[in-house]
Amino acid sequence: MKKTLLALSIAALALTTAPVMAQEAKLKIGMTFQELNNPYFVSMQEALKEAAKSIGAEVVVTDANHDVAKQISDIEDMLQQKIDILLLNPTDSAGVESAVKMAKDAHVIVVAVDANANGPVDTFVGSKNKDAGYQACQYLGKSLNGSGEVAILDGIAVVPILQRVEGCKQALAEFSGIKLVDTQNGRQDRSVALGVVENMIQSHPNLKGIFSVNDGGAMGALAAIQGSGKDIKLTSVDGAPEAVKAIADGTAFIETTAQFPRDQVRVGLAMALAQKWGARVVPKEVPIDVKPVTKENAAGFSW
Q1: Are 153 and 232 within 8 A, CB to CB?
Q2: In this structure, what are the phi and psi dihedrals at residue 181, rounded to the nearest 5 degrees?
Q3: 115, 147, 185, 260: which has the fewest Cβ within 10 Å?
Q4: Angstrom distance (rounded) from CA 177 to CA 240
Q5: Are 132 and 237 in contact, with CB atoms under 8 Å apart?
Q6: pLDDT 10s digits, 106-136
């Protein structure tokens, strides 16, 4: 809590002084996303552009499309364009280490956002992903009255996804009557998840619940559940508008643990600005809280 309050204080100071500092020399901010075919990252990009505009900074944005070689190449291009700050949303935490080192060798501030990266990153700003997985699966377990077969719809093996699965398993283990019968990879993609969950349902006729590591995959899972005609409850992580609507509408999708992508990128930029302008103390890691969204509060929730 103290670390978060310190980070927010630094963020407020950095963004307050930013307009004056930006007038002295126009900043160039680069951000590379693991993907932009996802409302979560689109909203993050929108918030970044709004924040950059408020301080008169230039923004360069790229989409790695889950290709680490492309992400490294994109970062190399940004360095050629003389960026001052690199906001990095890695598609492969280990794979981008060489690019992080290149950026630091070029005296660029590097802040990892949403997922951390190997190498000399200055600060990491991301959701409490283990908490997110725990809260989603705790809600699932309680909704099933602590009994029944459940499955996990997994995703790409980056740290946030691994942490969500870890948190989910921890929560499920607290229910003696819950049995985890299957874990399959839906690659966080609606169409892939649809086929995967159809197979899950056929293979496990007594399946009562599914946890998806993200809302994109969960929407594919929801289509499979609805197509099966079975009573299978679904929880997830993200807080995407489409997922929130499905929850509010009373579908089999009963909960998503929401992240706050706009807050993550704003705080990430503020951490970078603070370091750029000589702050003495800047946290190495800033965790951002998550929030369960259920039918009770879905109508009033948005990113």
Answers
A1: no
A2: -105, -10
A3: 147
A4: 31
A5: yes
A6: 999 999 999 999 999 999 999 999 999 999 9
